[in-house]
Amino acid sequence: DNKKMRTENHLRHVESMATMPSGACNISHLNAVILGDALATEENDLIFPSHDFSSQAHVPSTDKYLEMYKRSIEDPAGFWSDIASQFHWRQKWGDQVYFENLDVSKGPIKIEWFKGGITNISYNCLDRNVEAGLGNNVALYWEGNEPGFDATLTYTQLLHSVCQLANYLKDIGVGKGDAVVVYLPMLMELPITMLACARIAAVHSVVFAGFSAESLAQRIIDCKPKVVITCNAVKRGSKVINLKDIVDAALVESAQSGFSVEACLTYENQSAMTRENTKWKEGRDIWWQDVIPKYPTNCAVEWVDAEDPLFLLYTSGSTGKPKGVLHTTGGYMVYTATTFKYAFDYKPSDVYWCTADCGWITGHSYVTYGPLLNGASVIIYEGAPNYPNPGRCWDIVDKYKVTIFYTAPTLVRSLMRDGDEYVTRYTRKSLRVLGSVGEPINPSAWRWFFNIVGESRCPISDTWWQTETGGFMITPLPGAWPQKPGSATFPFFGVQPVIVDEKGVEIEGECSGYLCVKSSWPGAFRTLYGDHERYETTYFKPFTGYYFSGDGCSRDKDGYHWLTGRVDDVINVSGHRIGTAEVESALVSHPQCAEAAVVGVEHEVKGQGIYAFVTLVQGVPYSEELRKSLMLTVRNQIGAFAAPDKIHWAPGLPKTRSGKIMRRILRKIASRQLDELGDTSTLSDPNVVDQLIALADC
Ligand code: 6R9
């Protein structure tokens, strides 16, 4: 009953924030423009979908959104079963469509959707689409780093490639529930590998191919894969990166900790490096091209329960050890497919490009699973987005006639800096919908993306979500909502976001606080691999009864949501999640570093930059050489993307008398807001602050 009341309250709240052009409009005080009519400027910051766009959209109005949203909240079981029925199930789920306990005081946290339902996500991505007549449609367009290098796979061809790899994996003894670690760049072999694992119910754990050997080893040791799948090298921009060397080092390290990987399947990426130049360990290493093509192109599916694991993906938290986020099959399948369809207003005529790497959740849900479940044609781009020049993205958009373009604010900002002429040189006339993900998009980047890239014609879906949520949580539906630059707008179907204060009390109306979610949704993660206790402690204990996102959020008087960034010790650099503790532990592993404190600072392009304060071992002088060596340590332990933007040598760190580092003060020093240091009197040694300021620009 309590739950019912809360649901009713929530619905009343959503209805009252309905800001439709036709309905009770409480946004009339804003200057509105219609898509395609005018530029988005600071004066007219409310952009309505055009009649043309809306009338053809899956959700053509705010009224329709409200009707669907209302049903999704009042009757989640009915709403989601209707959608789930559109997929192929070997056997339908049981009477209970979902089960949830999100309250630690009532027992272990547990979320289940479609339990008892028997299905396979790889079958639903491939066989189901081929049977529906899409076999000759392009599933993957691959664009190489070097202009002119490309390839395609139709749905039938993709199915065949997936089956060949699946047969090989079975042959070497990989079976249901076994982990497979994947360390591949954006080659077609990456989604092929994910789908092959899913086909035989193996659990893939993709590690972004920018992580260092040490990080890779850490993940291998944690999930103990039967096989590691990689390639010899990749070209990104003008650089060749020798991935096999990194894998070799990781495998040595994991063997030293007692876990030996028996097989390393290596794809020969000839455009980057030849076989002859690749280091090889006989008996363990196998060339992909030598074995996979020999296998049959059909492979029986391993049917699984909806709640059987699909994949593990490690992500950063507020302590040093990465968390293995575990997603299961059925709910994730239904959720990624549905969010993709509605948030991008996907139609069969679309050509879709998401610039994210499959090494991150965005690549899992919105390069591989969501789009392929919808039978979409997906672009996989191997290279750097500004290679050979900052026009490359729009060159690709024109080449493939991309209609939906999904990227991160950091790329938008960096292209914005390179100048409009790189954009306007290309027509971009195929573009229809734009998307943004990874961090808050600042209104000026939003407007540039909207006005210049999309020529004021394309709505922007600013999708807020997380590795943990599996799919979009707060996002515009482009035909339904008027947009405000920088706001992720309103919740997706079935999602009940709430803003709570420090005590966990929901706050209504115009407010800001901690973003939580009440009730479960099908795409939610089910546990942290091997550490259910950490799952409960991190996400469900801070505010009883809710999932806590770790993000701050405010809601304006019109009900729009504005994400304000992480409230924990996680920073978001170019849309990559990095725990400050991970960088700190890398720094202190350096023999000459005594202590490190890392904070995020505002960064014009990356969103946030990494600012590291370090104290040195007694008697060690600070030098340029040492700075470089500290940077190298972080690169080696985590990856180049986590290297600090600034190392600030500190004779001492500001600490409370109980020895706690005062990060609040360090953040102010890092951002040079020296007049906002606040009270420093509780520090055990207030002089360190002056010392730090004096050394700021050393
Ligand atoms: C999908 C993804 C999650 C964190 C999240 C938040 C930030 C993602 C955002 C956004 C504002 C958006 N974030 N999308 N902030 N607006 N549209 O990025 O997953 O790597 O787990 O990062 O990213 O801070 O908590 P993940």
Description:
With 698 residues, this protein is an alpha/beta fold. It is built from 22 helices and 32 strands. Strands 14-13-10-8-9-16-17-25 form an eight-stranded mixed sheet, sandwiched between helices. A hairpin with a 2-residue loop joins strand 11 (234-236) and strand 12 (239-241). Helix 12 crosses helix 13 (361-373) and helix 15 (409-418) packs across helix 17 (443-453). The chain is globular and about 70 Å long. The structure holds ligand 6R9. Residues 315, 360-362, 436-440, 462-467, 488, 549-551, 563, 565-566, 572, 575, 577 line the site of ligand 6R9.
Number of strands: 32
How large a portion of the residues is in β-strands, by DSSP E? Answer: 15-25%
Question: Unreliable stretches, pLDDT < 50, 5 or more residues?
Answer: 18-29
Bound molecules: ligand 6R9
Radius of gyration: 25 Å
| End-to-end CA span | 62 Å
Strand order of the largest sheet: 14-13-10-8-9-16-17-25
Largest sheet: 8 strands, mixed
Number of helices: 22
- Percent helix among the residues? 25-40%
Which short descriptors sum up this protein?
binds ligand 6R9; 7-stranded mixed sheet; alpha/beta; 8-stranded mixed sheet; 698 residues; 32% helix; globular
